[in-house]
Target: Transposase
Amino acid sequence: MSRCYTQITLADRRRLHQMIATKAPVNEMARLLGRHRSTIYREIRRNTFHDRDLPDYDGYYGTLANDLAKERRSRLRKLRRHASLPEEIISQLKARWSPEQIAGRLLSDGVSLIRVCKETIYRFIYGKENYSLGLYEYLPEARRKRRPLRSRKPRDGAFPATHRISQRPEIIGDKSQFGHWEGDLLIFERPLGHANVTSLVERKSRYVVLIKNPSRHSRPIMDKIIRSFSPLPAFARRSFTFDRGTEFAGFRAFEDGIGASSWFCDPSAPWQKGTVENTNKRIRRFLSGGTDLATVSQSDLLNLTRYLNHQPRKCLGYRTPAEVFMAHLQEDR
Model:
């Protein structure tokens, strides 16, 4: 097999069509065509004809496969032929538009004479020529590598069994030890943007910390928690309990950053972190779901936490969370 890669030709595709018709093994097809078997698998997957209205004609046809490949390549070349088009796409990506929104806008009447689909934009973002621009950072999930279509990973993989709440030490569950926190994300109405607030509550003192986030990307959220809790002594940040939201999937970097353990509730069991759920109800009196966080600064959130932390609580013998929290900090030093 040649070490120099060349594009599959029309003649190759016609031979491939004949071999598929005879049900030849993929390894044999690859050997006869002088290609790697992965190339053959990819060719068949990408250029097989599918039509919902004509299911009886589904299959791989040499000439049609060649036309499909040419059409795909011509779509990508649009971004090279029209210099203004990549600039417009990059500008909209930086404005936090998704590829689907950009493609839909380009299809709208009077917006642009050039049309591309969202798949072309994704390839533009993740292609070798433009990858160094880091455009993936502006996507909703900001993945460095593109996830294959229709391959959403189950959350159990992100939150291993060793970190389930059932494995959490009993001393955390009975609230007898200081320094164990619960965390959640306060979400607001979608039309108002992607901004949200991380709410964190120390289980024993009910002390509240609120952090504003521009998006639901896990790593930036975890980085902000790390920066906020790093000044505290280790005994004041022993562990954190979260739900299984993808925003907390980056917990390993979080554990490395401040050395705290992480625990995760069972699916659809928010009551397992009841302290923060109860606190969220208090917070919602001031930050309803319709709040536009563009008008709320981190300083405003700090003022809100001061208000909440200086309210007497019956569960604390009518002491305030701030008083209990500071008392534990001084006692355990």
Q: What stands out?
A: The two ends are 69 Å apart (CA to CA). The chain has three domains: 1-73, 82-142, 158-331. Residues 158-331 form a domain with the Nucleotidyltransferase; domain 5 fold (CATH 3.30.420.10). The chain has 14 helices and five strands.
